[in-house]
Design brief:
By secondary structure, the protein is α/β, with parallel strands linked by helices. It contains 15 helices and twelve strands. α4 links the parallel β3 and β4. α10 packs across α12.
Length: 412
């Protein structure tokens, strides 16, 4: 069974065309005894990112093509896998080979912990990927203390989106090019950064793909994985999270709304559903710096889902969502601030002692509302990020423009 799979994926790796991501694998990991895990939302481009990494390792002579044992467990029907059989099948093909195991969507296998541990203890190099943070990050870190190194891959950033759409980022644009750039950002804020959707031109197909992704998330990643039976409550919670994106989530309100509809569910169950949605990378929670155990805001891992429940793009919310994940990619610890007389600050970077406000379009009508929380803040750095850099006077506040920085540096 696995012989053909091993050979097919070696051929696939050799021939596939890859659009490169902004991802750099640290080659020093090849010298260490580590299980390398790649964790990401489903459909975020994981297979291509892993193929990109494997291609680089082959080109740098760390491994050879025939070493690679790539198995995507989302394509298999078995929930229990004989990992020794995979090893035996490899040696039947390559008796003198050195297998390099790459297991994709490993959380689909019930006995993956024992199988991976067995291969690791025999000294084999292993890459794991999955689209469930709880199944990988927390559980494996317990079993492989100090032996695991983790990468997290997001959907496409805007700079990656432009590369996938063959748009050149450069320091200066003609009027037509700048108009094209703004139009592409409008598309990015509407349809998001899932690679498959980005590469499709048809708006009808884009919409159908988004619906399909959401259905897979609901039925496979949530209801099947966590054995959930209350489909209506799950869908209602998801819709509520999408509509309240970037805002504080009020589960008590959602509970009362469901109760008024005669839907039987407990608050604890709703909290469990919310945790599951974070585990499968549908949302990311952001806590209040002043009250980390209190209310929190939620952000969507990809803004495309808002398209399904709104008849127009909310550029303000989508822009804030995009900036949040740009900050996440940078690795800074991020919070929001609320609970003082200073008003609410969108983001606070604790290591830099920096307050950040985000406003898609800053103008004379909203400038006071956006700047007052910063002016009252005691943070060392105070930053206001808008889509295009504002020319309005912002004394004591650093104004940053998303498009200008992208043009100057090629990234944000």
């Amino acid at each position: 069974m696995y012989k053909r799979l091993i050979l097919d994926n070696q051929e696939r790796l050799k021939d596939i065309s890859i659009l490169r991501r902004d991802f750099a694998f640290d080659l020093d990991l090849m010298k260490l005894n580590k299980i390398v895990t790649f964790i990401w939302p489903r459909r975020a481009g994981k297979t291509y990112t892993m193929f990109q990494t494997l291609r680089d390792l082959i080109e740098k002579n760390f491994i050879s093509l025939q070493d690679i044992v790539f198995v995507d467990f989302s394509e298999t029907l078995e929930r229990t896998i004989d990992f020794n059989r995979i090893l035996e099948n490899y040696y039947e093909l390559f008796p003198q080979g050195t297998p390099f195991f790459v297991f994709d969507e490993i959380q689909e296998v019930d006995n993956f912990r024992a199988g991976v541990l067995s291969l690791f203890n025999r000294g084999f190099k292993i890459f794991l990927s999955g689209s469930n943070s709880n199944m990988l990050s927390s559980e494996l870190s317990t079993q492989f203390r100090g032996r695991m190194y983790e990468y997290f891959i997001h959907p496409l950033s805007f700079s990656e989106f432009l590369r996938f759409r063959s748009f050149e980022v450069k320091p200066a644009y003609s009027t037509m090019e700048y108009g094209m750039l703004k139009n592409l950002f409008g598309e990015y804020t509407t349809y998001g950064g899932y690679p498959e959707i980005v590469l499709v031109e048809s708006l009808v197909i884009k919409e159908n793909l988004i619906k399909n992704y959401l259905n897979i998330l609901i039925y496979r990643d949530l209801m099947e994985r966590y054995r959930i039976e209350n489909e209506y409550a799950v869908k209602y919670l998801i819709k509520s999270l999408i509509l309240s994106n970037t805002k504080e989530i009020n589960l008590s309100k959602i509970f009362n709304e469901l109760k008024s509809q005669n839907v039987r569910i407990s608050k604890n169950t709703l909290y469990n559903y919310l945790e599951y949605l974070e585990n499968i990378f549908f949302i990311k929670k952001l806590t209040n710096y002043y009250a980390p155990k209190g209310f929190y805001k939620t952000y969507l891992f990809d803004v495309s889902y808002t398209f399904l429940y709104k008849n127009h793009t909310d550029y303000g919310k989508s822009f804030e969502n995009i900036i949040f994940f740009e900050i996440q990619r940078s690795g800074w610890s991020v919070y929001f601030k609320r609970g003082t007389k200073n008003g609410e600050v969108d983001f606070y970077l604790s290591e830099k002692n920096e307050d950040i406000q985000v406003c898609h379009t800053l103008n004379s009508e909203n400038i006071e509302r956006e700047t007052q929380p910063l002016l009252r803040s005691d943070a060392v750095r105070k930053t206001l990020i808008s889509f295009e850099k504002s020319n309005l006077a912002l004394e004591g506040i650093e104004a940053r423009g998303f498009l200008e920085e992208l043009a100057e540096t090629g990234e944000w």
